[in-house]
Design brief:
single chain, about 350 residues, 3-stranded parallel sheet
């Protein structure tokens, strides 16, 4: 008979990681008491490395067009109801200028895998943002690209790249994506990004269709082995115009539990309290911070396009999560025992314990 979930939690706190086969029984056997034990340790480790500081990233959603047909995503190419848009380079730069004035020192350019987002276009926007604001970091989240493309983006001045692995179980990956997308290629991209010198973000959906505790165990083992500088996780939320419209959403409780586990595995990871968590629970962002997260990403996109970048149903896109209401967001973060800081929020090395 294997160790109890409580014993596994204590082992995780003592050793900083578990064997792959031990994560599933920890997840299956979790109780409020075990969750609280890991939550306290996650907060302790975060504060030891970063203090009670939460870093803000200005999110600029630059295109809702995508060549891919992922089964969970509202931007999938088969969704004829999606309102497509693409920001011009001038619009992107104007968003960054506004964000700089608001106090942002990291900008995240995110978009679907839009063929119009060529290396020339993206490199030009990145280089101009860095020219205007040399004290800032630029993060890109534009999906899978060739190694040569990643090299050009890095040379243009991009500092970080977010590419969720989505699931570290190859069979599960195949159930979430169309046949032309490859789990091996996703891993290739992450490896290339690391070798090229980006700070790399990985991450997964929690509660996605067909996910099992064993799938999540693979995710946690992957995170411990790959050691991403950033790790974005959030609950799966279905979109009405996708094949997964009828599947239940993931839970805030399990997402928060896993945030704590990831913080214990990787004490120096930059860990967002995601928009999806804020969408599924009225205190989602605060709960994420209370469970070890230390990044929030308010929206800097033009107000006219925020509702069009609809990855899932009911995404929050105006109000206190917007970049223009940092005072409101700051009050919410303060209620979770932390404070927003004006800082690039670079990852601390070594990246994981």
């Amino acid at each position: 008979m294997g160790a109890s979930a409580e014993a596994l939690a204590e082992k995780l706190i003592a050793d900083g990681r578990l064997e792959r086969e031990e994560y599933a029984p920890l997840i299956d056997g979790r109780t409020p008491g075990i969750g609280e034990l890991l939550r306290r340790e996650a907060v302790r480790l975060r504060n030891e490395v970063y203090g009670a500081r939460v870093f803000i990233r200005g999110l600029i959603e630059i295109s809702s067009s995508c060549r891919n047909d992922c089964l969970y995503c509202g931007l999938r190419r088969s969704n004829k109801n999606c309102e497509r848009y693409r920001l011009s380079a001038e619009e992107i730069i104007a968003c960054a200028d506004e964000g700089y004035g608001l106090g942002f020192r990291t900008f995240v350019l995110q978009g679907g895998e839009d063929p119009a987002l060529t290396d020339g276009f993206v490199c030009g926007a990145v280089a101009e943002i860095k020219r205007r604001h040399p004290d800032c970091a630029v993060t890109l989240s534009l999906g899978e690209r060739s190694r040569e493309s990643f090299e050009r983006l890095r040379a243009a001045g991009a500092d970080r790249y977010l590419l969720r692995h989505e699931t570290a179980d190859a069979a599960h990956y195949a159930r979430l994506h169309p046949p032309e997308m490859s789990f091996d290629n996703r891993l290739r991209c992450l490896k290339d990004l690391r070798e090229i010198g980006f700070a790399v973000g990985a991450g997964m959906m929690v509660g996605s269709p067909y996910q099992t505790p064993e799938c999540l165990a693979s995710d946690l083992a992957f995170i411990g082995d790959f050691r991403p500088e950033m790790c974005g996780i959030g609950p799966f939320i279905p979109h009405r115009d996708t094949p997964f419209a009828g599947f239940p959403a993931g839970s805030a409780e399990l997402t928060c539990f896993l945030l704590s586990v990831i913080r214990v595995i990787c004490p120096t990871v930059l860990l967002p309290a995601t928009t999806a968590l804020g969408t599924i629970h009225p205190r989602g962002r605060e709960l994420g911070i209370e469970h070890g997260a230390n990044v929030v990403m308010p929206n800097l996109s033009p107000i006219a396009v925020r509702k069009k970048y609809e990855l899932y149903d009911n995404k929050i896109c105006t109000g206190e999560e917007s970049a223009q209401c940092l005072e409101c967001l700051g009050d919410r973060i303060s209620s979770a025992g932390c404070e927003i800081v004006v800082d690039r929020g670079d990852p601390v090395k070594p990246f994981c314990g």
